[in-house]
Amino acid sequence: MWFQHHKLIFLTLTVVLCNCGEVKPEALTVGEIKCDHCSMSIVDMRFHTQLITYKGKRYHFDAIECADQFIHQKQIKTKQIWVSNYLQANEFIPKENAVIIQTKKIRSPMGGGFAAFKSHEDASPYQN
């Protein structure tokens, strides 16, 4: 009985400590993975969007609009969503901090013209 009680405590502490760290976006190689919504290969990293759920499941998308549609259709409870900075594709911005615009000046993979920027100043040259 004593051993089983300690085993349960150890298991609980392990799970809690593993979930305490900061969750970060994963870096991908071009063409390595497909969009979880439309199944297109993710090749233009300027539009790469990813999310993680509260259960720890990670999803990748080739465009912001794919992520938005996926979340709406599946009614996913997201823990964090990151969007790629259009001007520096290897940099992720938490979606709630990003300036997301829709413009005809940018051709996104799904044709919606959505792009994410760090600031309004960065986005202003691309706005209609």
Describe this entry's structure for a reader.
The longest helix is centred in the N-terminal third of the chain and has 17 residues, at 2-18. Helix content is 25%, strand content 25%. The chain is built from 3 helices and 6 strands. A 4-stranded antiparallel beta sheet has the order 2-1-3-4. Strands 5-6 form a two-stranded antiparallel ribbon. It has helices at residues 2-18, 64-74, 120-123, and strands spanning 49-53, 58-61, 78-85, 88-94, 99-102, 114-117. A hairpin with a 4-residue loop joins β1 (49-53) and β2 (58-61). The mean pLDDT is 88. By secondary structure, the chain is an alpha+beta fold. It has one domain (29-126).
Summed up:
The protein is an alpha+beta fold. Helix content is 25%, strand content 25%.
